[in-house]
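Researcher: Dear colleague, please comment on this protein.
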Amino acid sequence: MQMTKTFYRLCVLWMTFLLAACNGDNSGFPTSECGGPDNPCAPYITSIAVVPPVKAIADGTQFQFQAIANYSDGSVQDISTLSQWSIVDSSIATIVSDGTQGGVVDAKQVGTTTVNAQYQTYQASSELTVTSAVLDSLSISPVNKTVPAGIAVQYQAMAVFSDASQQDVTKFGNWQSGTANVATIGPQTGAASTLSQGTTQISFNYQGKSAQTDLNVTNAVISSLQVTPKNLAKPVGTKGKYTATAYYSDGHSEDVTQLATWSSSNARAVSIVANGTDGGLATANEIGTTQITASYQGIASFSKMSNTISDSTAATVTQITVTDLVVTPAKASVAAGNVQQYQAFALFSDGTSREVTELASWQSSNNSVASINQKGLADSYRSGDVVVTATYASQQADASLNVTQAQLTELVVSPNKVTIPAGHQTRLQALAVYSDGSSNDVTLQSVWTSAEQNLVQVETGNISAGTVHGLVQGQADVTAKFGGMEQSSVITVSSATLTSVSISPANATIPTGTTQSYVLTAQYSDGSKQDVSTLSSWQSNNTDIATINAIGVARGEQQGTSQIGGCYLGQCATANLVITQAVVTGLQVTPATATIADGQSQYYQATAFYSDGTSKGVTQLATWTSSDTGIAAVSSTGTTGGQATGVDPGSVTIVARYAGLQSQATLNVTVATAVKLIVSPAITKVPAGLSLPYHADALYTDGTLQEVTLLSVWQSSDGDVASIDASANARTFVAGQTTITAQYLGLDGEASLTVTAAVLDHLEVTPNAVTVPKGTNGQFEATAIYSDGSSVDVTSSSNWSSSDSSVVNVDNSSAHAGVGTALTVGSAVVTANYSGMSDTSSVTVVAPTLLELTISPQNKTVPLGLEVQYEAHARYSDGTSKTVTLESNWQSSLTTVATINSDGLAASVYTGGTQISATFESITASTSLTVTEPMLTELQVTPATSIINIQDLQQYKATAVFSDKTVTDVTTGATWTIADDVIAHVDNARFREGLVTGLSSGQTSVVASYYGKTANAEVVVGSLAYLGVDVEPADSMVKVGDTKQLTAYAVYKDVNTNKISFKDVTTLSDWRVQHRDTLAVNTTGLIEGKSAGSSEVYAIYQNIEGAGQVSVVDTYVSQLVVTPDNETVPEGTVGRYKAVAKYHQGLPDEDVTSKATWSSNNPTVVQVVTTGESGGSGEALSAGTAQIKAEFDGVEDEVTTTVSPLVLAQVAIEPRQDILYSGTPFQYHAIAYYQGGASKGVTLDAEWSSSDTTAATIETGNTKAGLAQGVYEGGRATITMSYQGMTDFVETQTYPATTTKVEIVPQNITVAAGDFVEVTVNVTFSDGRVENYAKYVSWSSSDMNIAYPSKQYVSGISAGTATITASFENVTGDASVTVTP
C-alpha cells in the first residue's frame, strides 16, 4: 500500500511539472508555452469532491470516505490516499488523516459533524451523522460457495442495524476458516485461499455478533484456459479488458482474470496489466500486432503440484479512431435516494462500436445532488439537476439527471411467495413507488434480512442483493427495508432434490462472429424446474472454434464444431454448436416505423442475412446510432443495443450497422401522456398451483397504446392466494380470490383472479403418436385436466424428456418447452411430467429425401403498412409433407420494401417489390411480395353489436377497406379501447387483440383505431340466458392416428326477444375425453384417434358441459380422389383443388385437402401449396399444362389442369339475393367471366365488403369468403365484390328471421312407464332455415303425471295418454304420447 501511495504522489508531481510548463496556469486557457495542437496543456484539476456528500453511520462503526479529483479533460482520479483528511468535531468521530487508510472515520458518539478533505489548494466536505442504531445482524456473501482448489474467494460482510441501515464491515471485523488445510482467509480482508478438497466453515465476527457460511473445495483439475475476446482489433489510444476463464475437469469454470499472469508479445503495440485488480487491462499504444497470453497456475492434486496452463489470442492495433461517444439514458429522472445506471458507448470510424462504461471516466456537475462512480452508477442525495459526463479517448458525452423530491408511497417485493429446494437460490426484487407516479428498482439499495438465518440466508449490500439461499427445509420471511418502509416475501425451502439438467438448444448453427445464447434448466424431484443459466458453469471444448461467457452466451470464432457444456451443482449437459463461414449479404432493422411517447423506449432488432440463406439476430452485435440524440438516444451495442428512448418530440432515423452493411428505421417521439392502464386478462379462473402471465398496456392521449408490462409494478391483493413477480407472471397457491394490480406512472390497472380448489386428475400429451422426417421440429403440448373438468395448457411448466435424445431431443426451457427435434432415424418416447402426473408421446423419425420447399402465399400484393404471414412447406420422397415455417430461415431481398421475422411474418415498409425467401436444409424457395399505396378509406368493426354476459367473452374483428378495393383483416394491428371500462374490458395482448370481456351490466362501445381511422361496435353486457354448449359435429368418426377438429358453440337465449344465438367458444372451452386410451383432445378441440373404440368428448364453458360422440376406427385409405380434373383455367387466377379419401371400411368419405401432400409437375404453369390450411390452393402462372398430384396415407391421385391466356371480361355476384335475415348466414359467390365464354368461381380470391356493417357483414380473405349475415332489422347495405380490378355489387336489406312453424318428430310417441325417448323439435324460420331446437323450446304437457317433456327427452311417468306441446317465439307444435305399463 505504501508503494501505491508513492505512485500517486509521483503522478501528482508529474502533473505539477506539466502545469509549470504552462506557467502553472490552472485557469484552463492555453498560454504561449502550451495549448497549440502540437503542445497541448496537461489536464488540470477543476474540482474535488468527497463522496458520499452525506453519510449516516452507527455509533461504534467505521466508514471509508472517498476523495475524487475531477480533471479538465474529463478524467477522474481517486485521491483518497493523497488527501489530508480532517473532521470538525472529533468527539463525534475521528478520522485517519492520510495514507492508505486516509478518510476512514471511527464513530464515537451520536451527533453530526463535517468531514473535510484537502488536496493541494482544493477542498471538499461531507456531512457525517452518527446515529444510536445498534447492530441487529450480519450477512456474509457468497453463500455456500463451491470452487476447485487453488481458486481465491473474496468474502464480504454487511452489518444491518436497528434503523434499517447497512454498512460494509468486511475490513472492520475478524474472519476465520474452520479448517485451515482446506482454506485460509485473511483475518481483516475476507480473502480466502483454497488449498485442498473438503469443506470449511467461514465465519465473521463483528461487535459481538457472528455469521457463518460453508466453503466447499473440490479436487477438480484445471483442464484448459479460455481468453476472450478473441482476435480483437483495437483502435489506437483505446483500452479494453480481457477475461481469463479456467475450465476444470468436473465441468466447473471460474473467472481467473485477476489471478492469471498476462503478457503481450509486442508491448509497444499493446501493453497489458500483468495481474491484480486491473489484470488483463490492455492499452493500444501504436499500430501493430501482438499476441496476448494469459497463464494460470492451478492445483492438480492434493500434493499441490503446480499445473500451469495458458491461452493466447491475436490482437491488432488499427488506425481506426473514436469518432463519437454516446451516453444512455440521455435524460433520466429519479427520486432522491435512488440510483441510475448509465452506459457509455464508443463509436469508431469503421462503423463499429463498443461499450466502454467501465473504461470511461465519469463526472457529475454537482456531487451534492448526485455523484457517479467509475462504473457509471449515479447515486442521488437531494433534489436538483446534474449533468453526467463520460470521457473516453478524448471524446465526451453528457446526460441529464433530474433528482426529484417525490415521496416514497409504497415498497413492493416480488414475488411475495416462493418455494426453492434446499441448497438452491432465487432472486427477489424490491420496487419503490413514489408520489409522482414513478417507480424504481431499489433491490440493490434495500436492506435485506431473513427472519430465520439457519433456514434461509439473503444477500444484501452487494450486486447480488435480494438473492435468497435455501439452506434446510422450512419456511422463513425475507424482508426488504427501504426509505422507512418494509415488505416481506415468504420463502419455503422444500426437500426436493436436483435430478438432472438440460441444455437448450441442443443443436445450433451460427455464422462466424455471431453469438448463440444457451439456457440450462434444472429439474427437481418434485417436478419443478428452474432456469439456472446465470448460476451455472459453461465450457466450450474448442475455444478456437467457439468461446462462451459466464452466462451461457457462445461466440463463433472460426469455422468448425464445438461442444458446449453447462454444469450446475454437479449435473451437466452438452450441446453441439456448428460455426459456418457464411458471409453477410443483407441487414434488416425492425420495426421499420414506430411511435413512442417522450421518455418511453422502443426495442429494435437487427437481423443479418447470410450467403447460405440463413438469417441470424445480431441486435447486440450491431452498432446503433440516432440521427438526433436530442430527440431520441439509442444504446449503441451489447445487451441493451437497439434500445431507443425518446428525449424530446420529433422524428429521428435509427441506424444499425453490421459487417459493413447498414439498415435504418424511423422513430417518432410524441408529447402524448399516459391516461389509462389496461391489464389483461381482465377476469381469470384457474386451479391452484398454476402459473399465468399478465399483460399491461398504457393508453396515451394521442390514442396509441404502449406495452408497459415490464415497466409496471405488479401486486396481488392476497399473497396467500397468488403472487405475481416483476415480469407479470402470477403463481397461484390456494383457493380464493385476489386482485392483480399494475401501477405505471401514477396509473392503476386491475384484473380479477379466482383460484379454485380443483385437483389435477391427469395429464395429456398431444400429439399422441407421430412420424416425422429427420431434421424437422414439432411442438408437443401438455394439457392438465382437473377434477372440475377444466383443462389448462401446462406445456411451458412441464418437465420434458426423451427416452433417446440422440433420436429426438425435446426442449425443456420455459420459452421453448415441448419443442422436439428429430435428429436421427429411430424411435423415442417423449414424456411430460407435471405435478406428479405424466404422459407420453411416441415419435418415429424417418429419413425420406427432401424433394421440394414451397412458400405460401405466393406472389402476394398488399397495401402499405400491412403484414403477411408466410408458411414454408417441405415435401418428401415418401409422399409426406411438413410445415417447416419455424425451422426455416427467412429473408427479404429488399428490406426497405418489407421486413420479415424468424416466424415468417413480413411487414410492409415502403411501396415496391421484394423477394421473400425461405431456406430449409439447403433448399431455398422464394416468392414475390408487392407493396402498394392505396388510401385507407374505411375501418369496420364486426360484429356491429354483441350481447354477452358478465365474465363472458366476445371476439371483435377490425377490417380495413382500401381505395383499390382491397379488404384486409387488421385485428392484430389495430389499437383497441373500450368506452366504459367498468362495463367491459378489451384485450390488446398478442393473439388476444379485440377480445372483449363483460364486467358489469350495461352498454358501451369497443373502438378500433388503425392508421388514423377509427370504428366502433356495440357491446351489451348482461341480458342473455346461457343455455349450454353444443359440440359439433355431435357424432363424428376419426381414424386411428388421425386428427379432426371439433367446434364448441355456446347457446344463448335473449331474455327480451327469446331469440337463440350461438357463439363459437372452441378456444375458450375446457376439453376432455371420456376414454383416454381411445381418444386424445388438446386445448383447442383437436381430437386424435389412439385406438379403435368410441368415446364422448366434452367441452366445458362457463361451468356447463356439452358432449359429442366420437368413434375411432382402425382402417386405411383405399382410394384418393382429386377434383377438379381436366379443367381449363385462365392465366393469373387462383383456385383450390380438393382431395377426398375413401376408406377401406368403417369411415365415410373424408375431405383431406388440408392434410394431403400436393405437388405440381410443372410449377411454372401451376403452383400449388404443399399442405396445411391452404394446402391444394393453386395459382395459374402461365399458359400450359400441369399435372397436380395429391398424396395421403400412401395413396395418391392426380388431375390435369390447362392454363389458358384468357382475358377477364366481367365479374358477377351470384345469386343476386337482396334480402338478408338478421343472424342468418347467406353464401354469395363470385364468378369471373372471360372473353370466349369461359367462367370460373373466384369466391375465395375476391375482395368482399359491406357498406354498413350494422346492417350486414360479409367474410373476406378466408375460407368463409362471401358469407354474409344480416345484423340490424331494417338495415340496408351494399355488398361489394372486387376481383382483378373489376367489381360487382348487390343492394341488400335485412329482415327479421321469425318462427313460422314448430314440429315435434315423431308426432306419435310410445314410451314405457319409467323410460324415456329422445325427440326432435324442428323450428322453421322465415329465412327458410330449419333447426332442431328441442333443447331450447318451452315444454308443456296435458298431464305431467303421464308424460313429462324436458329438453330433447320425453319421460313416461305412468300409463295413459297425453299431449305434449313445444313452444318457441309464440309458435307451438304438438305430439301425442302413449305411455305403456
Notes: The mean pLDDT is 92. Residues 2-21 form the longest helix (20 residues).
